[in-house]
Write a structure and sequence with these properties.
This protein is an alpha/beta fold. It contains 35 helices and seven strands. Helix 9 crosses helix 35, helix 20 crosses helix 22 and helix 21 runs antiparallel to helix 24. The radius of gyration is 41 Å and the shape is elongated.
Length: 703
């Protein structure tokens, strides 16, 4: 601390010079700070040494305090700006970065993971009461506590140990983070589409709070040749008029920079406001985009063709009384328990007479399946379950007749039992089962993402099988029905006897001048053939090839049976008639040349053999690199694949909406509901988005 100034022959105290008042009233202090010390005779004079007196005996002397200050000054790691910088850096690390694995999770990464997990599982976020002393604070806070319980470092930075302004647990923060994840999912979908053509799949429904919601799904072919149907948005609409739906759809597309002129298909159900030729949504969209071809959902067509026409046959219409029987048996827990007990008894009886396999898992207790109004396959499941549980159902109906709680229940059960044990009901039950077995495959296929050409081939195959059933299935069906009746002690009428009709049927026949028919004629002509003919007629009308010229021309691209249906002229006609603006005049000429080379090259290529769909063909062209050589054919394939088959994806959106927006969550905001649905439905995309990306976007949203 002691320094010497040679020119003045004086000594100074450097710490005191820096840190004491230069105008101090103490002369000894001024001597070492201002004037300099020159009284050398007072040095080394024992306890009166001037240097020792300046230092002082007390730790709090002016000199010792200055020494401490000087040491602090030299220790840069203790400087206030360094301390603040370190603290700020640590806060940023805790708040905005995710450490490498095996390190503690930071303050915001843990809430991000919790929010994403809850969205994936369609769980609610908030609790009824989230106060600190509340036992159940809701899924979000409970999940944070669970994650924190596995890591002490996490405990130090979350919940009560986090700064009050950076807990990241409030409902607005939860919604912001979920919005960031949802926006990233949409950005990925937008990137997948790029500049490709796409198709609109739209449907509407009411959710739990009775508000009209419109779901928007985009169908397109990605760069790898895969057909994708991505859920893009859910929009609340004030009404379901075609103009309102169009405005909301176009607003969504415009917001995400998707050109309306790139729309190459529309897929809706058969409602008038959707498919109307003059003022329907498809018509209004065609006004702005003339090549956005409308395809009525094939699954809806199938439903209308099969269910509605089946009811037109009077005898078959009575069969749909089956739903009433199922409602009676499943009306209460008591009769459900009786049904289960009857099943157990039936299984034990069949095992005792060696008519049932006793392998593990083959004899399961089941329930009667209810049919739905919009899915033909649900009728097939209902009929199949009814045949399997026929004996137990009869047993339960008999008990309801005896022990029913009300006279109406007993009376209805008696009517149901009489109908159930009649030959006519059993015959129609097996007839519809045969028809449903044939059409079920088509129904299931239309629920999946199909190409339009393959879907139409399935329709043609289904009609052929139904026609074959009409021509060759009568004897077999009659034999199956007789065996079933003998097994269950049901009276079989004499087929050659005269059929006794009800008064209504007899009146109808008298108008048609038909009388004195036999039982066999009635069941074969009036039931069997009439039912099948009505189905075939409706299928031919609703899947009319003349009304679907686009689909028929597209079938020229089909590679089945060694490219037997491949036709260069039809393919060129397809481009000229339906996609004139997607190909320039020069490209139309070049396309014909490419088709000629394609016919000799690709058709004989070993990797191109045994392809079942044009989806597979499109992928193979990409995999083999031939999509770059025959780029115009690849372009045409993608346009055809963009055409919709069904609106099953939009209906799955509403099923997901029922899971998320329940009665307890009926006050969800529209944006929050939409973001939950996007993350829930497109989980495969959402789970690939890194936490760092989510945090960075969240930071940019609210700096």
């Amino acid at each position: 601390w002691l320094e010497y100034f040679p020119s003045k022959d004086a000594a100074y105290c450097f710490p005191c010079y820096l840190f004491t008042n230069k105008t101090s009233e103490r002369p000894r202090v001024n001597a070492f700070v201002v004037e300099g010390f020159r009284t050398w005779r007072k040095v080394n004079s024992g306890k009166d040494c001037a240097f020792l007196i300046h230092v002082g005996k007390s730790p709090s002397s002016t000199h010792n305090v200055a020494i401490k200050c000087c040491e602090d000054l030299k220790n840069q790691s203790r400087h206030i700006d360094t301390i603040i910088d370190k603290q700020i850096v640590q806060e940023i690390v805790n708040n905005l970065t995710r450490p490498v694995p095996k390190h503690p999770r930071p303050r915001i990464a843990v809430p991000v993971d919790a929010i994403r997990w809850l969205a994936f599982q369609a769980c609610s976020f908030r609790g009824h009461d989230e106060r600190h002393d509340e036992q159940n604070q809701g899924n979000f806070l409970k999940l944070l506590k669970l994650l924190a319980s596995y890591n002490e470092k996490v405990v130090e930075v979350v919940l009560n140990n986090a700064p009050k302004n950076a807990k990241y647990t409030s409902p607005p923060i939860q919604k912001d983070i979920l919005h960031v994840i949802s926006s990233n999912v949409r950005s990925v979908i937008r990137g997948e589409i790029g500049d490709a053509k796409f198709c609109l799949l739209v449907d509407k429904a009411r959710e739990e709070s009775k508000r009209e919601q419109m779901s928007l799904v985009l169908r397109f072919v990605n760069k790898e040749g895969f057909v994708l149907e991505r859920f893009f948005n859910l929009v609340h609409v004030k009404d379901t008029s075609a103009s309102t739906l169009k405005e909301e759809i176009f607003a969504t597309l415009s917001y995400h920079n998707l050109s309306i002129q790139n729309i190459r298909g529309q897929g809706y159900d058969g409602a008038s406001n959707m498919r109307g030729e003059w003022n329907g949504l498809q018509s209004l969209t065609l006004n702005d985009c003339p090549y956005a071809y409308y395809v009525h959902c094939l699954a809806h067509r199938l439903q209308l063709a099969l269910v509605s026409t089946s009811r037109e046959v009077i005898s078959v219409h009575h069969f749909f009384f089956l739903a009433f029987i199922i409602n009676i048996v499943g009306a209460s827990y008591k009769w459900n328990d009786e049904l289960h007990a009857a099943q157990v008894a039936e299984i034990e009886r069949l095992i005792s007479i060696d008519e049932l396999d006793t392998s593990s898992g083959v004899n399961q207790i089941g329930t009667l399946q209810r049919s739905g109004d919009t899915r033909w396959s649900s009728h097939f499941r209902s009929v199949s379950s009814f045949l399997r549980l026929y004996n137990p159902t009869c047993t339960v109906l008999g008990k309801i007749v005896e022990d029913g709680s009300t006279y109406s229940q007993r009376g209805e059960s008696c009517v149901a039992y009489d109908l159930l044990t009649s030959f006519e009901f059993v015959f129609i039950l097996h007839l519809l089962k045969e028809i449903m077995e044939i059409t079920d495959m088509l129904c299931q296929a239309l629920q999946k993402s199909q190409d339009i050409v393959n879907a139409m081939h399935l329709v043609v195959g289904t009609k052929t099988l139904i026609q074959n059933l009409r021509e060759n299935g009568w004897e077999k069906l009659l034999e199956i029905t007789r065996k079933f009746c003998n097994k269950h002690d049901i009276e079989i009428p004499e087929m050659s006897a005269q059929f006794t009709m009800s008064r209504a049927l007899n009146l109808a026949r008298s108008h048609r001048q038909q009388a004195h028919v036999t039982v066999e004629h009635h069941f074969q002509v009036d039931v069997f053939i009439a039912t099948i003919d009505s189905q075939l007629q409706e299928l031919n009308i609703r899947f009319n090839e003349h009304a679907m010229e686009l689909i028929i021309l597209s079938s020229a691209l089909n590679q089945k049976d060694g490219y037997r249906s491949f036709d260069c002229d039809k393919i060129c006609n397809l481009v000229e008639k339906f996609y004139p603006l997607d190909f320039t005049e020069q490209e139309k000429i070049l396309l014909k040349c490419q088709l000629q080379h394609y016919q000799f090259d690709v058709i004989n290529h070993p990797d191109m053999q045994n392809l079942c769909t044009i989806v597979g063909l499109c992928r193979k062209l990409v995999e083999t690199g031939k999509s770059k050589i025959y780029y115009l054919i690849d372009k045409l394939l993608r346009l055809v694949l963009t055409l919709p088959v069904s609106t099953a994806t939009t209906e799955r959106v509403f099923l997901a909406m029922k899971i998320i927006k329940t009665r307890l969550r009926s006050k969800m905001e529209d944006d929050f509901l939409t973001n939950c649905l996007v993350v829930y439905i497109e989980q495969a995309i959402a789970e690939k988005i890194s936490v760092d990306k989510i945090i960075d976007d969240f930071y940019d949203m609210n700096k």
